[in-house]
Amino acid sequence: MEPGEIHALLGENGAGKSTLMNVLYGLYQPDEGEILVDGRPLRLKGPSDAIAAGIGMVHQHFMLVPVFTVAENVMLGAEQVKVPFAGFLDRRRARREVAEVSERYNLRVDPDAVVEDLPVGIQQRVEIVKALTRDVDLLILDEPTAVLTPQETDELLTVMRSLKAAGKSIVFITHKLGEVKAIADRITVIRRGRTVGTAEPTASRDELAALMVGRNVRLTVDKEPARPGKPVLEVAGLVVDDDRQVRAVDGVDLTVHAGEVLGVAGVQGNGQTELIEAIMGLRPTLAGTISLDGESTHGWSTKKVLRAGVGYVPEDRSVDGLVKEFSVAENLVLDIYDRPPFGKGLSLKPDAIAKSAKERIAQFDVRTSSADAAVGTLSGGNQQKVIVARELSRPLKLLIAAQPTRGVDVGSIEFIHSQVIHERDIGTAVMVVSSELDEVIGLADRIAVMYRGRVIGIVGPDTPREEIGLLMAGITPDTAARTANEGGAAATADEDAAAPAPEGPGNEDEA
Amino acid sequence: MSTTAVPDVAVTAVDEGFWTRARKAGAVLLGLGVLAAVLFGALATDQQARFTLSETEGGAALEINGTVGAILFGVIAAAAGAALLAGVPKRWFTLLLGAGLVAFVLSFLCWQVSAAPEGRNFMPLVNVLRGTFVLALPLIFGALAGVLCERSGVVNVAIEGQLLMGAFSGALFGSISGSVWVGLVAAAIGGAFISLLLAVFAIRYLVDQVVMGIVLNLLAVGITGFLYERLMATDAAKYNSAPRFSNWEIPLLKDIPLIGPALFRGNIFLYLGLLLVLVIHLALFRTRWGLRTRSVGEHPTAADTLGVKVLRLRYRNVIMAGLVAGVGGASYTLALYSFTKNMIGGKGFIALAALIFGRWSPTGALLAALFFGFADQLATYLGAIGSSIPSQFLAMLPYLATILAVAGLVGRVRAPAADGKPYIKG
User: Fold this and answer.
1) Confidence (pTM)
2) Which of A46, A279, A414, B254 is most buried, taking the most CB atoms under 10 A from its CB?
3) Which ipTM did the prediction report?
4) Residue B91 CB partners (closer than 8 Å, separation 6+)
């Protein structure tokens, strides 16, 4: 690492990036090898040693106390105390320090705000301020953009540039190639705990991805044109509230046909989650109908919906998709544990479960030490593969995949995508909800864009990104087309207008 | 991944619509007030209800006709409720709610006192106030022990055991040495012994903290019961006759009417308890130790990444909790009674309730303890004047209040986020 350098650490999930950085931050002890700072070996017994050596870290899961104020979080561990009274906190000084640092690096935060009331992007800013008040020279950012909106990501990149200008070095851990190329001065790629290469930011996405995965990956999804059949899922006039009794889905009409992928795009929080939960029977519908193969699912339990041939990859795998403490084998039969051959009457059949688990693990390339390992010990990508394996092991009419590749490494993304397309090709209706526009464009045959609880437009996957982006911002195709002055390319809101794409979109490498 | 900390679901303010918390409380209060005015008013007699400032029937007193008082205070409670229901600025909420509840209690007392037989139809306020503090004292110590422990993330169900062990070792070593101070130190160490066990098993061996707490309570009952039988019951003069702290009267302050006799003629434990509330409150919210304690109770991983020694801090706090509870136990045996088997009799659990009712804050715990102490004292008083209300009903009050508190009627009760969760590094 050089001073004033942004060094990107790129690697798949489970490649060892976070572990390496935790060693650097003193949270873990190295088994072998040493860390050199300014040419001298450094032995870290704990994070305080790392801080003393000028190393700061912003963790992937924020290390902030939610009920504390910003100033309290910043001073924790390095408290300024009033001199005459032993141990009493000097809050005024802490507040002043926060103000100074935010001023100097243009990171605006209110020192008296309570952290849990702040949006995620601001919380991250607090983390950075926290590190900067400790006078660090080297700042480690562990997957900082995973939780940010595109706008917040842009702001973060700006902050990183200004830190660099101030002479701070930054280690930027990520698996998002675009960001690396946008900001890094040097790129180190890690795979399975080893450095496999160093690259310049001018390297192409494909080169970087190949280094990460160890083979060539397709960043786009190869697929045949869809052959849509009869409608499988029909949603009409659906109205659903969210947990706070605020209208989340406000009159959605959707149809998903057998053998096609309907992509649902939209900025998060525009009703996608509630829409899926309503379809799955997880959330009551206030108005409208949902029917599966022409039969209304009104009043069905989630179990009944699943049994009717609906596969569900939930948005948040750790909360809804898996029981972390259960083994991989157990998680693989969570949906059908009570059905033959896995269960009979009151008893489970461990042999059948183990045998099936073995097959699934091989078939879906789940990297685990054994079928009996707790699923929580697997990397994110492999956890997701377990869910996909489970859901695709039943005969399906409809597959609903929400954020199927969130927090998943490139290799697993490719695999999961190919599985989704395979499912489509055998005649299943597929609905993919994702906040990654590239993913929706890559997978979908038709794209429904949601905005404020409504489907604001349904377009083909060859629609220009900008146009879909405008739809996501609530600007309808007509107005969008008018402003862009290319009426021919614009699709109308009618779903018939969107023709299935002849092929996937081109590789937008240098985008 | 270094941590498994999953951020809790953000607590968003629920749009309550018309039925805000203030309105709900107001509706309840209105109902109580009307009930008091009608029922207590009907049951009260025409006798005067006397609230004497001294301990005897004579002397200065506040007097009111029983029926009039019961109805009047009932109406006041109802009016406070109606005001809340009608919608008032937020800062008035606590004031109105407090006033309404006090008026309800007064209405109840007007009935009870006026209905008491001649000669007993007065309420000595000094006695009631002093009794409230005496009965609240072990709760204050116990709840403070809970605050110290739970704010750092270790659930302390073992308060009962810590109090009992403190009471026992205070009595035993006080008796043997003949010194109250030796007894006091021994009591603190006795309490700390139980909490050291809690700390080792909860922090080092990751045993479920609630289960461990219950086991330790049973252990304390067992050990002290056995030693009581073997030592104290056989030779009480030698082993169970600890010297007692005398009352210290504080000059000037002791002469304040009502408050003076109740508060400033007490023993060392009363002063120590109140002082500890103040000290712990300041320390918890104003000092480095307090900030670190709270951070470890809320998000230990975050504290660890900033160089706070999570486990060491927890050990220290849990042991401090034991010291405090041990002294609380000594407030029995070094001031009031000789040791008897299981003499704490569930006070440790009421202290736990006070901790929750007081929302894990030292001052809140003090108020909760005083409220429970008052309910306890009232039960004794009503028994003495031959009331028709079974004393068991009043004894239920602390638990009832805690259930209501946990159900969210007294505002959001939120435990420290990491309370009861062992911290495993890495």
Assistant:
1) 0.74
2) A279
3) 0.81
4) none
